[in-house]
Amino acid sequence: MLVTQQEQLHAEVTALVDRLGPGRSSLIPILQDVKRQYHGIDSDAMQIVADLLDIHPVEVYSVATFYAFLDPAAQGQFVVRLCRTISCELAGKDAIAQHALGVPSPVDVMCDTNARALVTPCRSGHDAREIADS
């Protein structure tokens, strides 16, 4: 039997609701898991989550678009976040973007199917853990 991606998503979200509970407090963890698993949160996923949590789809959309870490736009397996501060600019942010991603200047752009470059507010730290965080 062929299982469609939507059926698979429905089964996975159902399992998450069973584990986390059917309340609104489960919304963000479920959306995080969907984004991690599918590299985005499409309208079908939002509808499934809304149905299973018994909330209106616009509430799911509002949460998904409000929090930057839940950005529903499709992204690759890797997200490269380059901050927009002057210190990072002086440290060579554009050179990193050009060398690592092949783009002349970092903007919110899909570099290929495996990576997305984002210019974001500075997250401080600038250690390997922060850079590798997706």
Write the layout of secondary structure elements.
Blueprint: H1 5-20, H2 27-38, H3 43-53, H4 57-66, E1 78-83, H5 86-90, H6 93-101, E2 109-112, E3 115-120, H7 128-132
Parallel strand pairs: 1-3
Antiparallel strand pairs: 2-3
Helix pairs in contact: 1-3, 2-3, 3-4
Structural class assignment:
mainly alpha
Gyration radius, to the nearest Å?
Answer: 17 Å
Q: Pick out the low-confidence regions.
A: 127-134
Could you say what the CATH architecture of the largest domain is? Orthogonal Bundle
Task: Walk me through this protein's architecture.
The chain has a 3-stranded mixed beta sheet, with helices on one face. The relative contact order is 0.11. Helix 1 packs parallel to helix 3 (43-53), helix 2 (27-38) packs antiparallel against helix 3 (43-53) and helix 3 (43-53) crosses helix 4 (57-66). The protein has helices at 5-20, 27-38, 43-53, 57-66, 86-90, 93-101, 128-132, and strands spanning 78-83, 109-112, 115-120. It is mainly alpha-helical and 134 residues long. It is elongated. It has 7 helices and 3 strands. Mean pLDDT is 78; it is low at 127-134.
